[in-house]
Amino acid sequence: MLHVGGGAKIYPSDGCGTTLKMDPYGFLTILTGSSEIGQGSETVLAMMAAEELGIGLEKIKVINSDTNIKPWDVGVHASRTSFVAGNSLLGAVKILKQKLASRAAELLNTNEKFLQFQNGEIKSKKTGDSFKIDKVVRALHFKPPNELCEVSYFYEPSSKFQDKEYKGNVSGCYAFAAQAVEVEVDTFTGKVDVLNVFVGQDVGKVLNPMGIEGQIDGGVVMGIGYALSEEMIYENGYLLNPTFHDYKLQTARDIPEIHFYPIETNEESGPFGAKGMAEAPLVPTPVAIANAVSNILGVEINSLPITPEKVLRAIYNKSKNETA
Amino acid sequence: MDFNTITPQSTADLLNVIQANQENNFRFGAGYTDLIPELQIQNEKGLIVINLAQLKDHDFTEIKAEKSGIRIGALATMTDTLSEENLRKIPVMIEAIESLASVQIRSMATVGGNICTASPAGDVSCALVALNAECEILNVEHKTRTISIKDFFTGVKTTVLKKDEILRSVFIPNLECANRTLSGFIKIGNRNSMEIALASLAYHLMLDENGIVTNAGVAIGSVAKSIMFTETACEFIMGKNIGILSEADKERFADLVMEYASPISDIRASAWYRSQALWNMCKSIFLE
Ligand SMILES: Cc1cc2nc3c(=O)[nH]c(=O)nc-3n(C[C@H](O)[C@H](O)[C@H](O)COP(=O)(O)OP(=O)(O)OC[C@H]3O[C@@H](n4cnc5c(N)ncnc54)[C@H](O)[C@@H]3O)c2cc1C
Questions:
Q1: Considering the entire predicted model, what is its pTM?
Q2: A233 contact residues in B (CB cutoff 8 A)
Q3: What kind of fold does domain B58-173 have according to CATH?
Q4: A279 is catalytic
Q5: Can you tell me whether residue B70 is helix, strand or coil?
Q6: Cis peptide before A71 (omega within 30 of 0)
Q7: What residue segments make up the domains of chain A, in order of their start?
Q8: For ligand 1, is residue B30 a contact (CB within 6 Å)?
Q9: Which atom of ligand 1 is found nearest the CA of B167?
Q10: In CATH terms, is domain A2-155 a member of 3.40.50.720?
Q11: How many angstroms is it from A102 CA to the middle of ligand 1?
Q12: Mapping DSSP to helix (H, G, I), strand (E, B) and coil, where does residue B139 land?
């Protein structure tokens, strides 16, 4: 299947703003438009900044979610944060580096193009001389030009707002995914147990292996719930199962082995080659499970969730039809 | 939710507290996994909770092997019960406990609470009904009476307990006389934990060396106003050799069990499903 990998322009802007501040001790604050809802964006944004500026993660703080101070963003959806907020961050880092490099070049008596950011220093490749990054910040602030080391940047993906027919180039890039599942059907109760899920997914470049695995696992688990148990049941407009007592999420005991095979491609428009990847693992899951169940039973169940009752009914109707 | 608690430390204290509150509205609290959710829904005014959590009396808290069976204190938790070596011989009990809620809830939930809450979906209670367990009840005069768990439940959330009584322990008899057992607990639900049974089947058949049933206990849950002991199905299977049961015998057994079921339809499952799945499960136990 195909999924958006670079956000989705379902609003006239799908952009994200970033403000960066580096203080005189070399600590970097990232004020990002993106929110952290547990998906690990704080970590991945800090990793990107650390990589670019050659400073340690412990020197970086990410501030998000407070709309009083943070720049624009549309929200955590469309698998967009690493891609959109990542590109926004990299845009801001580029300006910050220019600012630091121009001051460092003066201090080191060299040309900006020979400068390297690594190990907390700005170093001349030519002479080998270096200055600690915090010293350069102090040189900017406490001496002429007396400037703070603060910059802002706004990134808008190349995508287009959907037309009236919901068509158009809605995302900054696209990603591909496939899943195979192995299921077991209890023909006495109709209960489906998923035994194995195999995920093959184009993710661009993997930025944080543990983070990406967490997103895949989480997506698959949601996909299994979507397939087997999650449903909002209405009667005359009233929701009959408004609590998690009756709205059934999957529990740890329901979760199979999830085998993840990242297919690494290099997405030119993505930060460090990465693509959005977090929703794609939940979309093929119910389809694969439904196909596996129909493979076993020889009948299709065409509504989700595939509850034990629907399965048992299908088995029952099939045997009735066969004997008739 | 607003209530006062009294926390007796000894049985003498406990009985005094019960006696002193005969005119008041009081409830016992053991692991609170049923009581608190219930009180959240119905806010009872002026309620007193007699907190059993700190009671220091082995008769209430311990699990003991006795001459002809095992006695489980009402305040023993599910986790305590699972780790009891002697209970390992009773798969129906172990499987019922393991099917209850989650590790966290099991470490709080007590066996006595499961019985006294008198839910038709009580998993451990269902196993205890199949095992023909006996409830030991203590009253304020420090006298005990024993009643079969089959007669303990009088309907949904109601029991034979009087206001001046408390459940002290439950006794599982007759464990020694089996050569082999066919024993297990089947919980039908939409997911594998944190589930209230749509229907459940607890069975404990004792067999002699040839596979002849010498003692049978079969109970069903979630398909009637209270947990049902399926007497006629048990009588039917007694004396039969389970190794060579005919298809007709298995169906007859399942039909007899189902005579005790009057399931309802609700958002979780239809009556049709509960009946059909339970009937299938009744037949399936002989596949082992
Ligand atoms: C999330 C969740 C999941 C659950 N899942 C299951 C499940 O899968 N299967 C299942 O069977 N149950 C389940 N339950 C219900 C509950 O956990 C069990 O019934 C448990 O055994 C109750 O024990 P307790 O000690 O918490 O009881 P309490 O809540 O303390 O008491 C329950 C009732 O029994 C009375 N009582 C307690 N002890 C005594 C006593 N010694 N003498 C007289 N009366 C007494 C109390 O007054 C109260 O009315 C679940 C509960 C929750 C919250």
A1: 0.92
A2: 267
A3: 3.30.465
A4: yes
A5: strand
A6: no
A7: 2-155, 174-323
A8: yes
A9: 42
A10: no
A11: 70
A12: strand
CB contact under 8 A, A241 and B267: yes
pLDDT one digit per residue (tens) for chain B, 288 residues: 889 999 999 999 999 999 999 999 999 999 999 999 999 988 788 899 999 999 999 999 999 999 889 999 999 999 999 999 988 889 999 999 999 999 999 999 999 999 999 999 999 999 999 999 999 999 999 999 999 999 999 999 999 999 999 999 999 997 766 779 999 999 999 999 999 999 999 999 999 999 999 999 999 999 999 999 999 999 999 999 999 999 999 999 999 999 999 999 999 999 999 999 999 999 999 986
Per-residue pLDDT, averaged over A54-79, amounts to: 95
Q: Is the pLDDT of residue A223 over 90?
A: yes
**3-state SS assignment for residue A279:** coil
> Are residues A312 and B273, on separate chains, in Cβ contact within 8 Å?
yes
* Rg of chain A on CA atoms, in Å: 25
Name the fold adopted by B180-287: Enolase-like; domain 1 (3.30.390)
User: What pLDDT is attached to residue B89?
Assistant: 85
CATH architecture of A174-323: 2-Layer Sandwich (3.30)
Give the pLDDT of residue B42. Answer: 84
Confidence of residue A143 (pLDDT cuts 50, 70, 90): very high
Tokens of B72: 């489980």
Contacts of A254 in chain B (CB under 8 A): 191-193
List CB contacts (< 8 A) between A252 and chain B.
Answer: 193
Give the pLDDT confidence score for residue B176 in this predicted structure.
67
What CA–CA distances, in Å, run from B41 to B35, B101, B119?
Answer: 10, 20, 16
Is A153:A88 a contact under the CB 8 Å cutoff? yes
Answer whether B73 contacts ligand 1 (Cβ < 6 A): no
Pocket test for ligand 1, best of B27, B105, B157, B191 (most atoms within 8 A of CB): B105
The one-letter code for the residue type at A227 is: A
Q: What is the DSSP letter of A83?
A: I
**Which residues are within 8 A (CB) of B172 and not within 5 positions of it... i.e. 6 or more apart?**
B69, B70, B71, B72, B90, B93, B128, B131, B132, B133
Q: Is B224 in the pocket of ligand 1 (CB under 6 A)?
A: no
Match 């199979």 to its residue by tokens: A256
**Atom from ligand 1 closest to the CA of residue B29:** 30
Catalytic residue, candidates A58, A182, A279, A300: A279
For residue B177, what pLDDT is reported?
Answer: 64
Domains A2-155 and A174-323 share a fold: yes
Q: Which tokens go with B284? A: 């399936």
Amino acid letter for position A310: K
- How much is the pLDDT for B288? 64
Locate CATH 3.30.465.10 in chain B: 58-173
Pocket test for ligand 1, best of B100, B159, B226 (most atoms within 8 A of CB): B100
In the DSSP assignment, the letter for residue B212 is B
Q: How far is CA A69 from CA A11, A18, A36, A65, A95, in A?
A: 22, 11, 15, 9, 20
> Does the pLDDT value for residue A302 go beyond 70?
yes
